[in-house]
Amino acid sequence: MTVVKGRTSPDQQKAYQDGAYRHGYTVRVSIPRIDLWIAAFLGLRRQDSAVGGVADPSSLGMSPVVAFLCSCALIVAALAANASRLGESWAVPTFYCAIAAIFLPAAARIVHPGASRLERLALIVIVTSAFFVVRVIRAPVAFIDHDEFLHWATVNDILGAGRLFLPNPLLPVSPLYPGLELITAALVNLSGLSVFAAGLIVLAAARIMLMLALFLLFEKITDSARIASIACLIYMGSSTFLLFDVHYSYESLAIPMLAAVLLASESRRVELGGTAGWPMVVATMLLIVALAVTHHLTSYFCTALLCGTAVMECLKQGASAQQRRQAILLASIAVIAPVAWSKIVGNPTGGYILPVLEGGIDEVAQLVSSSTTTRKLFVSDTGVLAPAWQRNLTMAGVALICLGLLTGFLRSLVFNGQHRNASILWPPTRWRLWRSSLLQILVLVTLAYPVSIIFRLTRSGWEIGNRIGSLSFLGVAIVVAVAVAAFWHGTSRGWLRATALAAAATTVLIAGVISSEGPRILVPAGYEVSADSSSIEPMGISAARWTSQWLGGDQHFAADRINRLLLSTYGRQKVSTTLESGQDTSMAITAADLGPMERKLLIDSGIGFVMVDLRMTTGLPGVGVYFDGGAQDRNHMVPLQASSLLKFNSERDVDRTFDNGFMVIFDVGRLGKARQPAVPRGRTGEKVQSLGRIEGDLQ
Fold first, then answer.
1. Which residue of 187, 368, 548, 597 has the smallest Cβ count within 10 Å?
2. Residue 667 phi, psi (nearest 5)
3. Across the beta sheet with 556-558, what order do the strands follow?
4. In what helix (H) or strand (E) does residue 557 lie, and over which residues does it extend?
5. Is the peptide bond before 427 cis (omega within 30 degrees of 0)?
6. Cβ distance 107 to 49 under 8 Å?
7. Helix, strand, or coil here: 178?
8. 177 pLDDT band (50/70/90 cuts)?
9. Confidence of residue 693 (pLDDT cuts 50, 70, 90)
10. Cα–Cα distance for residue pair 28/478, rounded to 1 Å
11. pTM for the full model?
């Protein structure tokens, strides 16, 4: 081995070694240390978390081209949705391809460092608008998803009675958090639009507000428009983004309001001057109160974020006394507002949320202890296995998110440090030196993402995991975006790497949609039993409207999960649910005989009419339950028996009021008391013919 001795400069030593290489001599070679590779991968050093600049902020760049491509993809999506109604097998894969075609070109341009700030913002708005049109294409003329009917009923009550807080048996908590319904009702009264049209306008405005607020929020806490735009892309990969959070539901308005609260709070931090931040503090307080009367869970999550931010502000070195006072004030308001509103309206969320949470936690505990079977992955409640491409894409999307979190978690903390040339992780004296306290909290929020995955493996906890996942994506988005901008892409000007990363982001997006909607993303050609949007069809709607025309409104009905939605909205009837009364009337409907217990159940519940849908005898429920989801309802191994549903035919004090061949309405108002059968009001509809039955069998 050749060793250079004597007093030589580093340049002379390097020249000597270069010469030795050329002549084949053996020299001492420095082998990279593995710990430095690990540090670079995880982003422990400041130089590994550097983010390059962007182009001129005044150029629209390629956004017009992306807008044209999105319009072409929307045409394909519309054709696929129509093909699904005709029963074509290629409709669902084509619809997913159209979603990917909307997202991929914009993602490639946003990941590339050459895009300007204005172009990035324009691309985010274009993709967001296109995705909202996808929601309209899926349901263009009416609400079809389960949660939408719950809030539609509340709007009808507000419009009909002209006051708030009327009981809603479908979701008793809905009238107590009427933010979304109040805005919709006001728009209906001002414009004369239908509830559906007014709801779409409110949802579209809320969706644009959400993405603009997120872009500005991420930009403020990272000082980078590139990271902010990439974070918006990653956020679209949440399982609830594409469709669930644009359902007509209070969460669809609450999430944008949460983003606005965080943006106003962070804007307060960066203001300077003697009265710095106080106008934004007032604006933030008003938004917190508005959020508290819109959605309970989102309001509680906002409380956790603002309280965590206040703690970080108190721990942060260099924070001014005024900033700390403002952070503590906002955290206090965030605690007081939802608690006070809950007390005012009667503390409804405990009985509504706790049973679901307890059931989910119990199943997770059993899953960890391996004492019970879990929910089968990619298998519906009817036993149908999802296609292989959906299973593979879903697993790939989760793996990509985990990889992004692995390379972005510590890197985001380092990136948030005040010292540009050293890590905040070492020495310990720099642990309390960071720029944005909110960014610190959002990084910690990503720890909830694995928890959401565990909950989604259980039957009772699936909905909990879905909600946790959507909120945790506020942190996931920013952490993965830092990893993409600082590690996976960096300052490379080539399109190959940007396109590969855009394809990965597209995989995350499609995986999120599949995990939320799966094969039921489009309305099928035929009716499916108790499958929410796949069970909303003209026969059930016309039957519900018939009740309003011939029986009058506000009759008390017992019905299955789907028909009670239609009766409450299209028929304007009262429906029996266990959420409202605690009585499970499904036991009287599905029992083999109408015995004393079944009669007492109907009488005690005040039921006047029972609607039975004989299509429930043709298959198992698509969502796992026919009615309210009680223990008996979840244990059905075979479809219901027609003889059980039609047992009312043999009862003397029960009248068959309506029969369209599959759906039958029985007047049970004379059970337990003597009264005449209900007399229809003046005829306002067409004749309804009874198709007749022999001994309870379908003809």
1. 368
2. -85, 110
3. 574-575, 556-558, 609-613, 663-667, 655-659
4. strand 556-558
5. yes
6. no
7. coil
8. very high
9. very low
10. 43
11. 0.87
